[in-house]
Amino acid sequence: METAHGGIETPAFMPVGTQASVKAVSPEELEEIGAEIILANTYHLYLRPGHSLIRRLGGLHRFMHWSRPILTDSGGFQVYSLARLRTVSSDGVVFQSHIDGSRHFLGPEKAMEIQQALGSDIMMAFDECVPFPAAYDDVLDAVKRTTLWAERCAGCKEEGSGALFGIVQGGMFPDLRALSARELVALDFDGYALGGLSVGEDAATRLAVIQATRPFLPEDKPVYLMGVGTPADLVEAVCLGVDMFDCVMPTRNARNGTLFTSTGRVTIKNARYTDDDRPLDPNCGCYTCRHYSRAYLRHLFMARELLAYRLNTIHNLAYYIDLMRAVREALRTEQMALFRETFHQSQGINQKKEDT
Amino acid sequence: METAHGGIETPAFMPVGTQASVKAVSPEELEEIGAEIILANTYHLYLRPGHSLIRRLGGLHRFMHWSRPILTDSGGFQVYSLARLRTVSSDGVVFQSHIDGSRHFLGPEKAMEIQQALGSDIMMAFDECVPFPAAYDDVLDAVKRTTLWAERCAGCKEEGSGALFGIVQGGMFPDLRALSARELVALDFDGYALGGLSVGEDAATRLAVIQATRPFLPEDKPVYLMGVGTPADLVEAVCLGVDMFDCVMPTRNARNGTLFTSTGRVTIKNARYTDDDRPLDPNCGCYTCRHYSRAYLRHLFMARELLAYRLNTIHNLAYYIDLMRAVREALRTEQMALFRETFHQSQGINQKKEDT
Fold this sequence. Notes:
The structure is a homodimer. The first copy, chain A, is of the alpha/beta class. Chain A has helices at 27-33, 42-47, 51-56, 60-64, 76-81, 108-118, 136-155, 174-186, 203-213, 231-239, 249-255, 287-291, 294-302, 306-332, 336-347, 349-355; strands spanning 2-3, 6-7, 12-14, 38-40, 70-72, 84-88, 93-96, 103-106, 122-124, 163-168, 191-194, 223-225, 244-246, 258-261, 264-267. Chain A folds into two domains: 2-246, TIM Barrel (Alpha-Beta Barrel), CATH 3.20.20; 253-355, no CATH class. Chain A is built from 16 helices and 15 strands. In chain A, strand 14 and strand 15 (264-267) form a beta hairpin. Chain A is globular. Chain A binds chain B through residues 19-21, 23-26, 48-49, 53, 56-58, 63-65, 274-275, 277, 291-293, 295-296, 298-300, 302-303, 305-307, 309-310, and chain B through 19-21, 23-26, 48-49, 53, 56-58, 63-65, 274-275, 277, 291-293, 295-296, 298-300, 302-303, 305-307, 309-310.
């Protein structure tokens, strides 16, 4: 995939930079890890510091000192999951800020205004998320509205702005997912996202939704699974034809001391690591694994040192980015089935150790 | 000054790495800033993760991935300021940990055991701090005990271990400071620290104590003022013949959003910086000032992003380290009086702006 700020190899994982910062790491660290694109949140940046401010200061890339591509979400999911007192109409959503309770409005035109002000490389059309579980008719209404809003978003895309993706909704109903996909494809977007997932459904349901939707999306356009998931979720979704991912899991888990390794998860506060002089993951070449022992990482975490959050985040993001690199290699050499099998076998090893 | 881990140019400022980490920054960032030596806390590392663990893992330098010199304090000040239920005897101090209330003992032999286990380049003899204000006789007792303990510390210094400094006590009484200095100098330490300051006294009292003590310390040995202070305090103390400093002020203030610049302090949350596209300090070449605007630093701080603490800390430490570099240059060229005058004039500029 090509953007004004450089290319992206797919399948790709996008670290989440909610508030114009990927929590605990610097842009240079993201580059060293190999991140080719990050995600920023339209809802959060609209509320604080404001998209007009960021535009005045030269756009989001310059503001946050990141020169590679940025994907912005639509704000739809955050309005649904964070904001209070939502009122949805055909124009958009009136809501209260989760920060100070102030009243705001987001709709298709506003979401595009914000994303274009930020200077996004890949924008998302404004969508309506529904709760899980939801009644069929409510989901159908949301699908219809999402299509109308997507068309209005396409209509206010300015010359020279970034790519625009439509977001497929439809809850857990395969036929509504197919309907949403068909309606959006008819509008010919630059790519398609699967939204409204990671809202409480189990992994099997999620995979079934992906499987039911993917055939209705074009083979030659990128497909982006929003907000998912564990390393295993990503491997499975790639096998179903997904090209792009974002998730707070590697960064949030890092700050909670749960670390992803080639042999499964490590809970770094576990007493077994007190004396452990080995790198966190001997198969990882990240800054954290090159220079620090498990014993030191445990000490930093127990002592609540700020460096703990950084070192853990660097490793977890490197794990996700490296996983995607290995997946691309497996796809290139047509070894994806073997890769998938080996990957799943490796993942339980550490849990068994920690449980003993 | 030379140590087993390299040389230190004086006057020097030492960033504080209390728990085997200078809060919010990496060793590489400290090197880029130009820090030639850091301080680590004997009391904290003894309690968590324990000096025996650090020795087993190859010493503090390897544990925390820092290859330049490390100075360790004696633990005396922390036992006095942090620990609970202290009982002081001629052997040392029984106290309760501020972390979990567990009972511990620190005395001259123990403090040396810990510092040598850590692999410290510059160790401090175990001392007794007194409250401020304190009665003359109590301070005299503490001075006498500090001398006896210093002698015992010198007695258990192992072959090949780091330098050992004696700590001058004596409260705010010039004659007791002189007594303490004379007694320690008779024991011929590698350097001398001024302890028991920054305990609530005003700057004038502190400067008077330094002025009263310095003549009793040798010209050819380093003098280290412990736990002091503001940039102006450092400039004044250098003029009185002090060579080394440590203080949590640059790092702690950074995390509170108070930033030191060439024109005085900046309170970064101030609304005046919302739209301010300029670097924090146009006269600073640190990573933060090279790549980020005041507007972005304010945004990160308001949004409580972890990157805020790092960027602010990098700048404040760079400010202190650069100030010492400028002071060394002024001393070399015999322009210290002029430097001091210019420095004090520059410091108020920003307050006047922020107050308007």
